[in-house]
Specification:
12 strands; Aspartate Aminotransferase, domain 1; alpha/beta; seven-stranded mixed beta sheet; globular
């Protein structure tokens, strides 16, 4: 059976060129980048070349890019080191953040190390800016705001410039989980009021297990992992040279075709929404994902009209038919409590209907959408 892969927000298929670059690196540049001999220096050169490329692409300084194992480590580094090294006592976030943010925040709050404040979230998935300003104005102490750029479940796009400007006007640091946007949106971090951002290579057709953290130079963020002086003392552990090279290649390829891919994906998303609305009357869309002005072109989160019995077996049925998608986010698809994002945005009655997240890459086609919709219609009418 040919799979129809519509779960690119969970992970993306790796570019063949990335595999080739990683293979060549593993064969030729096997030295430890911390070693001072020729093999080590050659490996170090590959790491630093990738760092400079990524920094230049995103409008950062090379020393502001720290290689990590991915988004979860990056988010944890920012949050925990802000508390332990920068003296942050108050953190403002939202209930629809990724668990890579929510879990460390809840852990720190349970230990009594921070006071956690949750900004109110509007039905479209955006934070209430008035409530955010109220929270900022009421907290006189050092504070950090952590709000993601693109929500990984419903695709809402945060106005990071407006949020960051507001944060800085109240002397708050601003951290944004940009895992769903780097590789898909043109970002110039030096032109945005963002202090910390994170990325994961497997979200833009790179390898799993590698990512990077952007930490603005002036913030003086400390290290989470100790045990060596790698990454300018910011992240101990031998750098994964082949993964870093693969990430650089994936990012390079993603931005080379960004404009064309964005145009294609906007067309594909619109087509998907229209097909679902026409074929399954009563279909609604969660958050702002049907609003192209406030949502990403890569995600459709649809709430489908069907009875409870059919809803329970929907994901299983789609899997049997070769459709790869998510019920909520992939990180939480096995949870019996459901999606914390949808639990926040939807009423109890709305949440009785099944919601599916379809997330696209430039590899997807209208023919695949046609097949998906036909399978859904046949299942609903069976």
């Amino acid at each position: 059976m040919d799979l129809i892969y519509l779960d690119n927000a969970a992970t993306t298929p790796i570019f063949p060129e990335v595999v080739d670059a990683m293979h060549q690196t593993m064969k030729k540049h096997y030295g430890n980048p911390s070693s001072v001999h020729a093999a080590g220096r050659a490996a170090k050169a590959k790491v630093e070349s990738a760092r400079k490329y990524i920094a230049n692409l995103l409008g950062a300084l090379p020393q502001e890019i720290i290689f990590t194992s991915g988004g979860t480590e990056g988010d944890n580094t920012v949050i925990q080191c802000a508390v332990h090294h920068l003296g942050i006592k108050h953190i403002i976030s939202s209930p629809i953040e990724h668990h890579a943010v929510l879990n460390p925040l809840e852990h720190l709050a349970a230990q009594g190390l921070i006071t956690l404040h949750m900004v109110q979230v509007l039905p479209n998935g955006l934070p209430d800016m008035d409530d955010l300003e109220r929270l900022l104005s009421e907290i006189p102490a050092k504070k950090l705001v952590s709000l993601m750029h693109i929500n990984n479940e419903v695709g809402t796009v945060l106005d990071v410039e407006a949020v960051g400007t507001l944060c800085h006007s109240y002397d708050a640091l601003f951290h944004s989980d940009t895992v769903q946007s780097i590789g898909h949106f043109p970002l110039k971090l030096n032109e945005l009021p963002i202090d910390f951002a994170v990325a994961a290579a497997h979200k833009f057709h790179g390898p799993k297990g590698v990512g990077f953290l952007y930490a603005r130079k002036q913030t003086a963020l400390g290290a989470l992992l100790l045990g060596g002086t790698q990454e300018r003392g910011m992240r101990a552990g031998t750098e994964s040279v082949h993964n870093i090279v693969g990430m650089e290649m994936a990012l390079r390829m993603s931005y080379e075709t960004l404009e064309a891919d964005t145009t294609k994906l906007k067309t594909l998303k619109k087509y998907c929404i229209q097909k679902l609305e026409h074929a399954l009357p009563g279909t609604t869309f969660n958050g702002a994902c049907a609003d192209f002005d406030t949502s990403t072109h890569t995600i459709v989160n649809a709430r489908l009209p069907m009875n409870e019995k059919k809803a329970q077996l929907l994901a299983f049925h789609l899997d049997l038919q070769g459709i790869c998608c998510s019920k909520g986010s992939a990180c939480q698809s096995g949870s019996v409590s459901g999606s914390h994002v949808l639990n926040t945005l939807l009423t109890k009655e709305e949440n009785k209907l099944p919601s599916l997240r379809f997330s696209f890459s430039a590899h997807n086609t209208k023919a695949e959408i046609d097949t998906l919709v036909a399978i859904l219609v046949a299942y609903v009418n069976s």
